[in-house]
Amino acid sequence: NAMPPPKSPRLIDCDCHALTRMRPMKVLVLGMPRTGADSMFLALKILGYNPYHMKVAIESPKYDLKFWNEAYKAKFFGKGQAYGRAEFDKLVGEYDALTDIPPAVFVDELIQSYPDAKVILTIRDPDEWLACMKSTVFAIVDWPGIRILKLLDPFVVGALFTGIDLVAKGFFGDYGGSKSRQAYIDHYEYVRKAVPKNKLLEFHQPFEWKPLCDFLGTSLPNDSFPRMNNPEKF
C-alpha cells in the first residue's frame, strides 16, 4: 500500500513566535470591525492593557497576517488543522486583550482557549454598519492599484487582501450585501448565547468610560474616551 503524503508544515509551527503565553488573556473584544474597534484599542491601552488589533497585525515584524490567513483557511474552508489555545498563545502570547478582526471571527476558539477572559461586544446598528463597511473596508478591494500593490508587497498588502477575501467569503458570505448584514446579526446573537451574561458587556456608542471601567474593574481615567477612525479618516 502506498504511504499517504506527508502533511505540509503549518506556518504557525515555525519558531518565529513566542512559544508560551507571557501574560494572562483578560479581555476579548468580539465586536465586528467598524463598530469602534480603533477606539477600544486605544481605550484599553489607556487602561493599562496590551491590546492586539488589525493595525498590530499589519505592522508586525513577524508578518502576522500570514498566520491569520492560515487560521481563516482552516476555520472556514477546512484546510489544515484549526487553531486553538496553543496556536493563539504563539501568535498573540504577549497580548492580554484582543480586538477587531482577525480575532473577532474566532469566537468559539477564543472563549474556549481563554475562559477567564471578559468579553465585550461593541455594537452598531446593522444598516449603519453595512453602509460604513461598504464605504471603507469593502470599497478598497476594488481600488485599481490593489492588484499591483499585492504583487509588490506580498507580505503585507498581499496578505491583507487575501485575508479580506477569505473573511468576506468564509464569514460574511459576500462583499457588503445582504449576506454580510445577516452574518453581522448572527454573529452578535451567537456571542450573546455563547458567553455568560456576567462576563459580557454590550457596549453601545457613544462609548463612555464608566460602563467599561465598571465591567473591567479599573479606575476611571482623567482623559476623555478616545474617538477614532471615522469613515472620512479611514
TrEMBL record:
Entries under Pfam families matching the protein: Sulfotransfer_4
InterPro entries for this protein: P-loop_NTPase (IPR027417), Sulfotransfer_4 (IPR040632)
Domain of life: Eukaryota
The name this protein goes by in its record: Sulfotransferase
Organism of derivation: Glonium stellatum
Species classification: Eukaryota, Fungi, Dikarya, Ascomycota, Pezizomycotina
